[in-house]
Amino acid sequence: MATKDVPLRWDRKMQQRLARGEAAALGELYDRFASLVHGIAHRVLGDERAADALTREVFAHVWEDPDAYDPRQGPLRTWVASLTHRLAVQRLRATETAALERGGPGTAAELEDRVRRASVAARADYIVQAMPAPLRAALELAYFQRRDYRQTATDLGVTEDEARRRLRLGLQLLATAHDAGAPGAPPGYGGAA
After folding, report:
1. What is the rounded CA–CA span in Å between residue 1 and residue 188?
2. For labeling, which of 5, 47, 123, 133 is most exposed (least CB within 10 Å)?
3. Rounded to an integer, what distance in angstroms lies between the CA atom of residue 105 and that of residue 122?
4. In angstroms, rounded to a whole number, what is the distance separating the alpha carbons of residues 116 and 185?
5. How far apart are CA 150 and CA 124, in angstroms?
6. In whole angstroms, what is the distance from residue 170 CA to residue 183 CA?
7. φ/ψ (deg, to 5) at 149
8. What is the structure's pLDDT at 109?
9. What is the C-alpha separation between 162 and 13, in angstroms, rounded?
10. What are the pLDDT digits (tens) for 103-137?
């Protein structure tokens, strides 16, 4: 329990520093979460410039309204990821809807399908980043290097049973990426939405 409280303590202190208007706190928050924010934005939007713009928007939002984060609902990382996801989906939907209204290709149903796929992909990326290193390493060996559980066990220096357990748990976590609900709904990202 004490180990879980340490990050939450940091989260609460960070929120308090942001609420006092400490620019250094925003810089620290940016250093810690910019790659997460940009990664989710890029995964949903599929465009580097749009992801850059959304990253700036997310940190501006956090700076302007740090009290929107409630530490009782979960980690700051989860809240920032959910905020990024929500804003990215809104941006994607607005951009694509405008393109449809201008006579662009596709239908509203295809747009919603693209939004859903982008949301699931972003959530899966977040889940992989957030999972414990042993699970992530097993999945990376199995997926990217096409290792079976026996080869994964050898590569990781663990028993075959342990390799199977890590792969099973990692895949179970990844399966929750599809459980985000309706397109555009906050994905939860493993904690508060």
Report:
1. 21
2. 133
3. 24
4. 10
5. 25
6. 24
7. -65, -30
8. 86
9. 38
10. 877 788 888 888 888 888 888 888 888 888 899 89
Which three-class secondary structure string do you get for the chain? CHHHHHHHHHHHHHHHHHHCCCHHHHHHHHHHHHHHHHHHHHHHHCCHHHHHHHHHHHHHHHHHCHHHCCHHHCCHHHHHHHHHHHHHHHHHHHHHHHHHHCCCCCCHHHHHHHHHHHHHHHHHHHHHHHCCHHHHHHHHHHHHCCCCHHHHHHHHCCCHHHHHHHHHHHHHHHHHHHHHCCCCCCCCCCCCC
The pLDDT tens digits of the residues spanning 135-168 come to 989 999 988 889 999 999 999 999 999 999 999 9
Could you report the per-residue pLDDT of 55-93, keeping only the tens digit for each?
999 999 999 999 999 888 889 998 999 999 999 999 999
- In angstroms, the CA 140 to CA 174 distance is 13
Cβ(89)–Cβ(182) below 8 Å: no
Per this entry, what is the length of the chain? 193
Show the tokens assigned to 67.
């009290």
